[in-house]
Amino acid sequence: MSTGWTPGLPAPTHDDLNSCVQCGLCLPHCPTFRVTGLETSSPRGRIAAMRAVQNGEAPVTGEFTRFTDECLACRACEPACPSSVPYGRLIEAARIQTEANRPAHERTARRAGINGVIGHHRLTRLAGWALATGQLLRLDRLMPRHLRLASPRITFRGMRLPLPRSTGMGPTAMLLTGCVMDIAFRPVHRATLDAMVRAGYRAVVPGRSGCCGALAAHAGEVESARRLARQRIIQMEGAEVVVVNSAGCSAHMRTYGHLLADDPEWAARGQALAAAVRDAVELEAPPGRRVEGYVAVHDACHHLHAQGIGPEVHRTLRAAGATPVDLGDGGRCCGAGGIYAVLEPGMAATLGEQKARAIIATGAPVVAVANPGCAIQIRNHLDALGSDVAVRHPLEIVD
Ligand code: SF4
Ligand code: SF4
C-alpha cells in the first residue's frame, strides 16, 4: 500500500496545509462535525489527514477517502478561520487525488455520471427527458429514496420554455444557461434575462448551453472540469459581463484562472472570464414587480462562504417590498453539495430535513434559494414533511 500523494496530479500544497494552526475555531461552523461530533468529520481533522498523506504516513485510500468524501465542500469553515486557510482549494486538490485512487468500478460509475451525462449537454437533456417521463408516469416512486430526494422536478413544458437569443439594449451581458439549470430551472433564466435588461444590459443567451464544470471539479475530475472551463471561455469571452444565476457555478467560474494554471495562455483567458462573472443577485436591477409579505431566505454556501454574497439577496427582496426572514440556523448547509446527496445520502438527508424544518418554522409561504442543488434538496425535503412552502430563486420572486 503506497503512501503520499500520487505524483503528476495536483495535490494540497505544503503552504496551504501549514497555514492551519489547529485552533479548532472552525469546528462549530462545520455541518458534518455538528452532526457527528467527530474530529474526523471536522475541517481540522480533514486537514490533519491530508498532512498525514503529505508526510508519507498514510495512503490516499480507505479512511482518507471516507473523511474527504463526507465533506460537503460548503466552505463554512473558511470565514470562521483566523488563519485564512484556503480550505476549498485543499479539499478540491485532495479529491483529485482520491478520485485517481478509487477502485476502477467505482471510478467508472462516477465518471459516467459526471463526465458522460453532466459534461455533454445533449446527454444532460436526454437524461432530463427520461426523468420527466418517469415523473409523469409516476415511475420515480420505484427509485431508491435517496435518488428521489436528489432528483429535480422536470416537466416537458419547462424544458421547452423558449429563451430569447438577445433582448434589451446596452453593453453585452451573457447568461450562463448551464446544465441542470437549463433543463430544470428555465423560468429562473427568464427572470434573470428580465433582470439583466432592467439593469441596463443587452442580455444575450449563447448558442450552445453547457456545464461550467463545477460538479466535475467538486468530484475531483480535474480534466473534465478543465475541458468544460475552456468550452465556456471560448463561448463567453468578449462579453462585458457574464451573468450566472447558480451560486455554485458563479463561485466555480471565479476560479477559472486557478483551475487552468497549468497553461499560461488558458490561465490568462480564465482569469479574464472570471473577472467578468457576476452572480445574478449582484446585478442591482430594479425589481420587476412589488412583493408583499415574508420571504424566508436560504443563503447558499457558495454565496455566503465562497463569495461573501448574502446582503444582496436581502436587498433585492426588500427593494420589491418583501420582508426577508433569516432561518436562524447560522447559514448551515442544506446537504445538497452538488452530487453529495447521491453519494452521501445519510448525512445529506439529516441536513436536508433540518433545513426544511428551519424554513417551515419561519411561517413564510415562500423561500428564496439561489442555487439549483439547494432548490432541489429543499423542495424534496419540504415535500417529505408535507409542506407546500414555495421554493423560488430571488429574481423569480421579484420578476
Ligand atoms: S482550519 Fe483554520 S480555524 Fe480550523 S483549525 Fe485550522 S487554523 Fe483553526
Ligand atoms: S467545507 Fe463544509 S463540511 Fe467540509 S470541512 Fe469545511 S465546513 Fe465542514
SSE-based structural type: alpha/beta
Termini gap? 57 Å
Lateral arrangement of strands in the main beta sheet: 1-3-2-4-5
Instruction: Just give the CATH class of the domain at 294-398.
Output: Alpha Beta
Give average pLDDT, whole number. Answer: 93
| Assembly of the depicted chains | single chain
Helix content, binned percent = 40-55%
Sheet with the most strands, sense and barrel status: 5 strands, mixed
CATH arch. level architecture of the domain at 294-398: 3-Layer(aba) Sandwich
The portion of residues forming beta strands comes to 5-15%
Radius of gyration: 20 Å
Verbal overview:
This protein is an alpha/beta fold. Among the domains are: 14-102, Fumarate Reductase Iron-sulfur Protein, Chain B, domain 2; 294-398, Rossmann fold (3-Layer(aba) Sandwich). 51% of the residues lie in helices and 8% in strands. The protein has helices at residues 14-18, 31-36, 43-54, 63-69, 77-80, 87-100, 104-118, 121-136, 145-149, 156-160, 180-184, 186-198, 214-218, 222-236, 247-253, 256-259, 264-276, 301-304, 311-319, 340-343, 345-362, 372-384, 394-398, and strands at 166-167, 172-175, 202-204, 241-244, 277-279, 294-298, 323-326, 366-369, 390-392. The protein has a five-stranded mixed beta sheet with strand order 1-3-2-4-5. A four-stranded parallel beta sheet has the order 7-6-8-9. The radius of gyration is 20 Å and the shape is globular. The chain starts with 13 loop residues before the first helix and ends with a helix. The model has no long low-confidence stretch (mean pLDDT 93). The structure holds iron/sulfur cluster (2 copies). The site of one iron/sulfur cluster has 14 residues, from helix 2 and helix 3.
